């Protein structure tokens, strides 16, 4: 499968100033940017900066950023599912995972996440993919936001909806381990029925177990 990446860019006015939302950004350009020290949701900022540089270099890897000048203050990643997760077992070349989305606290409430996702989907090539994301409550900043799991889940769901992702049922054990966890999916307009069937099989792997 040919992985086409068409660059888009837009400005977002916030009360903290104007942000540039753009991508997919190349590995080289990302390496030259500064990664904000407040981006700590997944690993230490230096390590996460390196991780997104490496993801951008992958054929299917896509990084969309929100930046203040040369400083990355938010980002979203797309890449093939982790080989250790059930989603990779489908062996679908046309399925990618929204692996991480993060915005520094200063810009929360400014709809940065929604705008990152909207811009991600401007690329027509996204219609060639089944896009999935797995949401686990233990990744959520409940302490920093003061929200409970259901309030946070509602915000996450609204944000994902902005990118066209919708809730899908699954019997995945990790997702099923807590009712706030969820699988969200966007099926591109050019996805064939055979791919959808393979995806459905991977969503429900235990349906014939007694």
UniProtKB/TrEMBL annotation:
Does the UniProt entry include the keyword Membrane? no
Q: Which domain of life is it from?
A: Bacteria
| GO MF annotations in UniProt | acyltransferase activity
Query: N-acetyltransferase domain: which residues?
Result: 46-119
SUPFAM superfamilies reported for this sequence: Acyl-CoA N-acyltransferases (Nat)
Q: What's the short name of a Pfam family annotated to this entry?
A: Acetyltransf_1
Protein's UniProt keywords contain Transferase: yes
Subunit and interaction comment: Monomer.
Return the protein name: Acetoin utilization protein AcuA
Species of origin: Bacillus kandeliae
